[in-house]
Structures are given as C-alpha cells and as structure tokens.
Amino acid sequence: MLKHYFAQFFRNLKRNKLFSLINILGLSAGICTSLLIYLYVDYHTSFDQFHDNGKNIYRVNQTFIWSDQVDEQFGSTGPGVMFAMSEALPEVKRATRLLKLNEYLVTYKNELGQQVSFMEPNVLAADSNFLDMFSFELLKGNIKDLLTNPKHIVLTETASQKYFGQQDPINKILTVEYAGKNHTYQVAGIMADIPDNSHLTFDMLMPMNSIPRVKAANWSWVWTGFVTFVELFPNSDIDQVKEKLKDVPRQYAEQTLQQVMNMSYEDYLNEGKQWNLYIQPLSDIHMNTNVINRINQPISASIVYAYGLSAAFIILLSCINFTNLTTTQHLKRAKSTGIKKILGSTRWQLSLGYMIESLIYCTISSLIGIVALWYILPLFSQLTGAPLTYVGLLDSKIFGLLIALVLGMTLIAGGYPALFLSAFKPLDAMKGKVKTGKESASLRNGLIIIQFTVSIILISSTLIAFKQLAYTQSKDVGFDKKNLLSVSHLEWLEPAQRESLTHEFSQILGVKATSICTSIPPNLWAGDQFEPVNAPIKSTPLNYTTADENYLPTLGLRLKYGRNFSKEFPDDVHSVIVNEEAIRIIGWDLDENVLGKKIAFGNDHNQFKIIGVVENFHFWDLWSSMDSFALFHLNSGMFDSGRNFAALSLHPNESKETSALLDQLIIKWKTFVPDRPFEYQFVDEAFAASFQEQQNFLKVLSLFSSLAILIACLGLIGIIIYAIEQRTKEIGIRKIVGASTWQLALLLSKQHAQLILASIILSIPLTIYMMQQWLQDFEYRTEISASVFMISGLAILGLTLSISAYHSVKAAMANPVDVLRDE
Where in the numbering of this chain does the ABC3 transporter permease C-terminal domain appear (predicted)? Predict the structure, then answer.
C-alpha cells in the first residue's frame, strides 16, 4: 500500500516539476526558519536556568533614587540592603552581593622575570557565600575559603590560560593596579568559563572584603553600586515577602537619610519621593528591560517574541503556499481521482493518499531545511548577536520540534487538498466539469488575504523599525558627539603629566580641543544627593562629573546663562555648572537670577556656587529622558573614582585621515606611558552601541520580510494559474466576442487587486498595535505615519499586479480554438 503511495508521489513530482520545486522550497524555508528561531528563543529563555537553587533566588531591586524622571526600577542597591533583608525577612535563607569593579590592569611576572599584562574590564567583587548561592562550576580550589581571604582571587579557565598558559595557576601571584596602587592577590581557585546563558559574567572574582571602602560603608543605602541577591527558603510565600518589603526602607534607610541628606524618611516621602524595594526572580532578569541593570544589559522580551511570531508567520505562509499550489493541480488530477473512485477507492483512501503525499513533501523539505540550517546558523548567529552553535541541534527538543513541525505542516498544508481533491463526483471529474463552489473560492481568497496581510505587516514593521532607529540616531543629543573621542586611563599619569599629554594631543593637526575629565557621555556614572540652599526642597539627586575649563567647548555644550570655569577664577573649584533640568527639579526660576545660588553636599555641607547653566543634553543613551546634571571643577575633590579621561574634539575627517590621526595620538601616548595600552572610544559609536540589539532586530526583520514576500509571491503565482485554469473557456469566449488582451488582463487582475486591498486594510490596525508595543521600549519615538502603509501596500499591490498581468496576458494571448475545442 505504502509503495503505491510513494510511486504516486514520485510520478506527480516528475509531472509537475516546477510546482513541486516551489512546494519543497517554501516548506524548507518555513522549517529552516522555525528551527533557527527556536534555537534563538530557547537560548534567551534558558538564561540562569542552570543554577541548582535558581527558582528560589531573587535579585533585590529598588526605586531609581538618582532621578525623578526615571520610572524603571534599579537593579542595584546600597551595601546595607543585604543586611536589612537578612534581618527583616525570616524567609531569607542567605543573601549575597556583587560589586562591579573598574577596569583594572592585571600583571603576572613569572620566575624568569617575564611580564604578562592585560586590561581586565570584567572583574567582580563578591561576598564569601556567593558560590554557595550560585552553581558556577569550580575546577580547582576549596569553595569554602575561596572568597574569605582578602588576598585571594578566583579566575575563569580562559583567564587563567591567558596569564599562565598550561601551568598550574593555584598559588601564583597576580598584581592588580587600582586607585593608583598595586595590590597583590594569590590565585586560589579556577572556575569553568561562565556559560553563555548567564546574565552574571566575569573573568575574575575578588573577595568583597578586599575592598576596604565596603566595610566602612556597610551602613549605607546610597552607594548604589551593589547587586544584591537573596535566596528564599523553599515554599516561601512570595506575596508575604513583597508585603514585608514595604516596611524595610522605612526601618533601615533612616540612618542613611539622616547622615547623608540630613532628613528623616518621612521628610523624604513628604517631598513626593519614593524609596521602595522589590524582588525579581533570577530567571526574569535577562528579558526584562524595565529594570536598569548594573551587570550586563537585558534583551527586550518583545524582540524575542517578535522573532517567534515571525517564524510562525513564515510557517503559516509556507503552509498556505502548499495548499494553494496543490489545489491548482486539481484539474489535472481530477480525472485520475474519478477513475480511482469508479474502481472502488473510498474517499478515506484517497484522502490518506494525499496526506501521505503531503507527509513526504514535508519530510523531504525538513531534510533540506536541516541542511540549509547547517550553513545558515553561523550567519544568523552573527546577525542576531546570540552565540548559537551546532551543539544546540543535538538537543532532543529539536527532534521533537522537527517531528511536530512535519506532522503539523502535513495536517495544515495537506488537509484541505486531501478533503477537496477526494470529494469530486467521478462522472463530473471524468468530463472535466469539476465545480469548486463558493466555499472553496472563499477559503482560497481568505488564504491569499492572510498571506499578504502577513507580508504587509512584516514590510510595514520593517519600515517603522528603520524609521525609529534612524530617528534616534539622528536625534540631537545636545552636544557634538559625532567628532568626539574619549581616551582612557589618564589616571596612570600625575596631574601635571595629564595636562602635558592633553596639550600634546591638542597640537596634532585635526584636534580642535581637549579636556581632562572623570567621565564622558554616555558613560556618566556619578550621582548623589545634594541640598539646594534656600530652595523649595531639602534634597535632590544630581548626576555629575568633574572636568577642567575646556570640557564645555570640547563637547560643544551650550551655555544658557552665566559662564564657564576659568583659570582666571581660582575659586571656581568651589563652583558648579548645572543644566536646565536641575534648576527645574530644584524648583528655582530658570533665569539669570539662579546664578550665585548654592547647593550643598555631604556632612560638612560643602557649598558650591552656581556660575553657569547649560542647555539640556543627553549624558546617558537615548533610552533615557533628559535628566539633572551638574559639572564640578576637576580640582573640586568631588567624585574620586580613580578614573580620568581625555576628551578630544576632532575636525571632521575621512577615514584614512582619522586613522593617521590615531597613529599620531598613539605616538604621543607612548612618550608618556610607554608600557601601557592606548585605549579610546568614539562617543557616537558608544551611543550607537546601545541600539545594537535593535539594529540586529531590524536586519532579521528585513530578512523575514523578504522571505515572506518571496513565499507570498510564489503562492500568488499558484493561485493566479489556478484562477486562469478555472476561467480558460471564459477567456476564450470573451476573446472571440471581441475582448482585447489588455481588457482580459484587467479582468483577471481585478480580483487579485481587491484581495490585496483587503489585506492592506486588515494589516494596518494589526501593525499599529504590534509596533506601538515595540516602540514602548524607546523614550523618544517616531510617529507611525500613513506613508509607511502606502509604501508597503503599493509595493505589494504593484508586485501582485505585475505577476497577475504577466500570466493574464499570457493566457489571453492563447488561441481560443484550443481551449473551446471540446465544447
């Protein structure tokens, strides 16, 4: 029996090579796309799932206290929050903290005096119980005392090989330079490389008690550099924990408020501010963009789900194609179906034959799809930024998905043709007088509308995404980011040498201005609470940096009132320049009268006089709104992070000239710091990097849109041929009575144009809804204009009419005698 079905399949395959090829290619594309997206979605949804106690681990988040403009939670807390959680909540089994450290210079000198040095940007400090809570694999060392000795350090396997090669690293000494001093650490443990699907990543792990400042500040709630985790006892009531959290800040943050801000918790609330704690499940961190992360940035869940939805669309289009293209062949096979019925074949047997034929199509397509996946996977991985590997293809879930896809596509794609082609009356089929009926026509038209609705949604979404990213990247950030260069690690030099180096930089042709500072947008990380003197509010959060008098002209910041720092005014070390938003938040009138007012900082209430107000500018990425900002003088004593930068404003250059300029900068650098690497970053590239995920999304969406259009057009070819075969005699009669070729082409194309118009109308509200959800991730959003739908709709309509016109003209030019011969 099966041998007969296989023989029938290959016979039909040979007779209808073109349509069989289109069917197989369409189904293969659907299967390959689905497997790709499955690997992608599975990767992102698997984050942090490998920890043994992961389901009981939560990160402690809090209100973003450094801005009244940011609604998101903050994934960082003060060092004292861990102790408060342990004391206030009996449900907490253990609590631990991580501290993201600066980029450190790490050096190993072997027995021969040979030195190996690297800049290490991915170093964390952790409490002693960190490895008890998280199930990272330890290859060497004793887990009990790894993070208790302040002179120990733990490396990943890759980091160990970088410094020691194949030597045993245990007990070897590394020198870590930070805060201008060298500190030695003994390698006490080696961990397996951190899995790709961990949101916690590091190359080196230092004990928290090796950072003296931490112990002295364990009472503080405002040094919000710590990522705090709690592990709850199994079966803890999460709702009760959340309820208890409401009282924790009131009880434990009071000391910080009194000591730092000179106000009570009630005073803080009375100013309209909030300070709440939240717990977030570990598995929720990677795909939740509503929390500002200190360690690694989450991916938007809407992008992951959009990929999944796109894969479902592609599968749907492939199945519709198979249905349409198979149906177009029913006239050629109607007579053979009638003969089989006359010879005794039941409808069930005929349906089974068609279903087996569909199963063979899907099986062959799945094999081709897997082969295609093998070649496409590296490119897709690069395109999405997800480290997808061939190992994922060996997962048993992949085989389960593949079987489900084959069976599902068999039922969807083969079900309708099986029922439709087996339902003909034998005599009508033998005479070639098969009637498809209005229901069949309505179903086919509905499938066409669905196909092109999906295609238009994907095209429109791509255009909107492109428009949004172009809008954000071209948006004025309030300063000249395009020709701004940041040079790192001026802290390696003495203050006088820093000035000498930046002066040497300024003498290079192509450099307009230079400045020494402690941070440059979009990496402005300092913030604290300040007390405006004689203001409506007692305290306000201000983001700030310190810099010399060249900072404003180098960045191109625009003064609205007052003046810049100047060497002619030595007292400027006690002055401050703020932006418009800071004045607004404090509650002062934004005019020249604000000059001379003061803000105080710290227990000793150091007061800084406002000498200038700059226009608002984006000192973070464009995901955030404008916020308050203060600029203190480089010698003010504020913000001693141990980091210094040179900001260089460059003349616009060609890429070759920029490369030559960088070579000259390196030469100057080496004269001052011969044994240290020259590290730099273009500020506009730093801003663009924050949208890399969205750029990848746009590329993949464009790819899916193109694939959808291709599949839809293949389906359109099939349905047009089907429609023409249904109306060949009508075409012949109309031509005999005088209809021209173009009149016939217009007649045949009219129905398809109506279907496309219906698809355009249906796609508009669906696209608007979906893209509005995606645009919610952006602080600054473009408008969804009618032009987007006009462009996508006209493109599809033009393509449809071109295909329809070609085949219609071809049919209309046929000799009417040939098609009416049997009448």
Answer: 310-422, 703-815
